[in-house]
Structure formats: C-alpha cells, structure tokens
Amino acid sequence: MTAHPAEPDGPLIPRPAKTFPALRAALAQVAPSRLPEMTAERDTVFTMATQHNSFGPIAMFQLKWATVIEIERFPGVAQRFHAAEQAAQDAEDRESLDHAMRRIREIMDHARSQVAGE
Q1: Other CB atoms within 10 A of residue 65 CB
Q2: What is the pTM of this model?
Q3: Angle (CA) 75 58 19, round 5°
C-alpha cells in the first residue's frame, strides 16, 4: 500500500522552501490553527541552537514543519493522516493502536522523504 498516493486534484499549494518565512506562510494556508504551535516551537528551538552553538535544532525544526506542511498540502493525505491519529486515540486494544500507528508512520515517512529529498 502506498502511504501517499498521487492526489487527483494535486497539492493545495506548492511545496515551500525550508525557510522559516516560507514555512510559516505555507502553514498559514494549509493549517492556520497550528501557527501558534510553530511559533512557540521556533522560539524554543532558536534558543537551544544559540545555547549549544549548533544549527542542528533549526534543521530539525525545518524538517518537522516541512513534513507537516507536505501532509497538509494534499487534502486526501491530510484526511487519512488525521483519521489515523483519531484511530490511535480511540484504540481500545494493542492491535488497533499498532495499525493506526503504522498508518501514521507510513504517511509521515513518505512526506519526510519528499521534503528531505529536495
């Protein structure tokens, strides 16, 4: 099973560059409710990067949010992803939880490979 099949209507927006302004603008279009979360995380990550004199936290922040946006750019993929998240929360047994977590992981892994492969 392909985790992220071609969507017949294509993406809602083009894939953004992995810069904070581009990611923020893209998130505002595809998942505006997550902007406060992104901003709070950005503040934490930039503080960590400064304290440790490392760009690693910033690179991970960019990859995480590029992955979130990659999922949300495709309505069908986002719908399947959120359904799997809900199934994981509602799971009443280990088998159901494992199945939902596999679906989440497949979608995230595919999205991450798309944005990391640029």
Answers
A1: 24
A2: 0.86
A3: 55
